[in-house]
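Progress note, sequence design subtask.
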């Protein structure tokens, strides 16, 4: 049975004190909630990972990394390797967020290398993908997402998917206030599940969690999460407020 997941991507926000306070605030809000089949994840900045890990001890909140470099080590100023993350106690990393693709020119080929490095190092990966507005307007959204999945994911073996979470992010809905309708989200998630089934079989397809990311808020989370193939959300702005993020967790 695949897990329900609510993951908060804090991006370049919060200093150490704010990160600790936010984790404490989320924990207070969800104390007593039934989270039997739900994972609660937050992704602070690199410099706040250690403090956040400590703050999350004895809570149901998992701390993950926002990114990693594909190389084991080397002359990559400002970058962080899988081994460095593991050394801190990090077990999961986000790979391929649309902002990494658009702002830092991460291609499908680079992301394939990052996925391989994560899996080879025993890390779980939250792999992000999604179409831009022009691709949606041209009705090429399924074609584009299928291409991203094939180019970056299809190098993996079926067994690797025990450590893969997928996150569909329509780029046109990130930080814009626009949200894919629940029906649009379900269409894409069902499509992705079908792509997985054709490549890896029904077991992988049915057991891989697929999250929706794109302006999820307390007032729309329940409707989005109610769709059959939507297993949770990758939350941006709303994850920076304990009350809002907790409301989204409770909506699942």
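Output:
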């Amino acid at each position: 049975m695949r897990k329900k997941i609510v993951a908060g991507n804090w991006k370049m926000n919060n200093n150490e004190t704010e990160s600790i306070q936010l984790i404490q605030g989320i924990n207070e809000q969800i104390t007593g909630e039934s989270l039997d089949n739900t994972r609660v994840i937050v992704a602070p900045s690199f410099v706040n990972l250690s403090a956040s890990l400590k703050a999350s001890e004895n809570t149901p909140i998992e701390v993950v990394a926002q990114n990693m470099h594909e190389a084991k080590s080397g002359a990559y100023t400002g970058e962080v390797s899988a081994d460095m993350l593991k050394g801190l106690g990090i077990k999961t990393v986000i790979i391929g967020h649309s902002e990494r693709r658009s702002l830092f020119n991460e291609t499908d080929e680079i992301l394939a290398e990052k996925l391989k490095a994560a899996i080879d190092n025993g890390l779980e990966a939250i792999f992000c993908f999604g179409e831009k507005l022009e691709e949606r307007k041209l009705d090429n959204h399924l074609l584009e997402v299928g291409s991203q999945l094939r180019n970056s994911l299809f190098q993996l073996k079926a067994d690797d998917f025990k450590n893969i979470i997928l996150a569909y992010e329509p780029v046109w809905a990130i930080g814009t206030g626009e949200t894919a309708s629940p029906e649009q989200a379900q269409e894409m998630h069902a499509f992705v599940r079908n792509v997985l089934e054709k490549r890896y079989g029904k077991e992988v397809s049915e057991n891989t969690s697929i999250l929706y990311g794109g302006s999820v808020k307390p007032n729309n989370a329940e409707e989005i999460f109610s769709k059959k193939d939507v297993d949770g959300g990758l939350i941006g702005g709303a994850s920076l407020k304990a009350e809002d993020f907790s409301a989204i967790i409770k909506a699942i």
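Residues 182-200 form the longest helix (19 residues). Work on this subtask will continue into the next period as scheduled.
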